[in-house]
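Are you able to produce any protein sequence you like plus the matching backbone structure tokens because I've never seen that pairing?
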Amino acid sequence: MTISELTPELVKDYCGISDDDSDDIVGNMLMPAAKAYIKGYTGLDDNQLDEHDDLATAFCVLVNDMYTQRDYTLSLHKQVSPTVKTILSMYAVNHLG
């Protein structure tokens, strides 16, 4: 499954979000934000994102993190999920090696 095939319902199911009122938040705010994060991190465009099925997993993890971690202040020890970082780093074309 690719990022473009993911629906708010599928993402909510993956994340264990059962609140029906969260459709707008997940679909209109968090999913676009997660996609923008992945595109910014990797330098890939929409078509290139869909060439890699494992990016859908990273996308869902990011949405889940954005949904559950809504603190205004940041912990100094807060890091990107190692799974997300590994998957995104495999396809990053905009990082110097």
